[in-house]
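Quick start: what a row looks like.
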Amino acid sequence: MSAAPLISVVIPAYNYGRYLPKALSSVQNQDFQDWELVVVDDCSTDDTPERLQAFQADDRIRVIRNPENLGAVANVNKAFGEARGEFVLLLGADDFLLPGCLGRLLNALRQYPQAGFAYANYVMADDQDRLVSTVRHPGHLPCHLPPGRDDFPDLLRFDEYIYMGATLFRTRVIREQGAFDPELTIDDQPGRFFRATDWDLALRLSLRGVLSTFIYAPLGAFRIHNNQASVGRDFDEQGIGAREFAVLLDRYLVAENRDRLAGYEAGILDTLNRKREAYRQASLPGRNGDSARVLAAYERGEAFLRELQNDPLDGPLDNPTLTIVLPLMDNPEVVDQVLTQLDLQQFKNWELLAVNRGRMDCANLGDDPTRSQAVRCLHLPGVGLATAYNQAAQVAGGQLLYFMDPQGYLAPDFLAYLVQALSQPGCTTVQYPVSTREPEECAGLHRAWNSLLGMVLSAGHPWQDQMPPLAAFALRRTLFLRQGGLDQSLPLLADLDFILTLERNFTVHQLEAKGDVQVGSMIAMMFQENALGLTDQGIEQALQMVVHKFALPLTQR
């Protein structure tokens, strides 16, 4: 046997002979060529053997024909087991790779050795191999994503967004964690094809701590046709998708996963209710013998999530990680300046998540193999500050969040002080008495500001004289997610809106000053965005959009 290739592409095949040539040729046409292709034919009764015969001259292609039909899940697992490469990709017999797929996925895993798999965006293709549309999945961030995101709760609130045909695994991950679960079933027949086995695999890997990295580019093609497992009349009329989701709800909405799901309840409930309503609207409960069991699973899932929503999320934390979110605008030199400050901090269990909203791809900023703390960068060109903060919070790896002013100064014990307070039971949000700075251009902009803030702050409230900026606060990430993040519909002052909402709904603990912390004022940060020119009239327009949401004044706590 020849030396093992670097990548194994495995194709479980059954009666998709007409599509196989495209699948195989898409592998042959990759720019990366150190691969093997393993096709495991599960006793096809169509022209699959004849179609494969045309590729026998390529000694990198192995064809295995099962002596008896194993069924879809067992055949997939057999295909995985035949992989000899260090990396493995599972390709559907009716799907195909796009140019550059193998090379780009491999480069991502080489760049991030801590990632267990790399996945990419994908396109829809029709029966004639034509590319129809690029998938815009809500689970995909619009940027390349380094490892650190917790995919587990997102896979439940966004549905399955990791397409196997554009996913490269480290083979050892599949060997250690297992491939498709043959025990999954919706009809008490283990081994019968459970179409959401790929979804379950992604959930299981993430739950067990396997990290991923995402490439924001289409690298695979998912074919839509009437004979595929997850599309078609039987799939819709029998409510298979809704029934399989019920099985996953019972498997993953359990007590031991509460901490991983906290803060995500609303999003998961939206998905649950959408699938349940579709099941009911199709009159499926009266047409399937297991309808009572399906609906009971949805009720159990809803009850679990409603109970979790009532959890105050204020229990004690043991050595939590702090994610520091740093906004950039094509100024990568700021990262080194900030890292110099952070290295002087007494608290060391942090990660830096820089978000560049300009044109420069800052993916490799802060790369230092000797650094124990994670430094990641998201490239989100053109988005508003609220969107940048929300996207960063979605993929943050820490239990705590701090939104840092790029020009700010932090006393060496600042982070330790924040984390110590937020780790205590009953404390979810803290405010530190910072010193603020403003450019000279802001000097005359306070009249409209103070006047309108008086409409939402009660007399004597400490924020009447100086509204603290977002960089004066730190909070638990679960609280940020549960509140829904910053309001992205506001062109300016989404940070003010967020802080006022925090004050109204939660207890903000005021900390005593223990060192000098200097950040830009809220007016200065708004001036930096400069969307309205920042005249008195501009400030008034921005504030009015926030003020109308708060009918009653805030009281001093």
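That is the whole record. Confidence is low (pLDDT under 50) at residues 552-557. The chain has three domains: 7-229, 232-311, 322-547.
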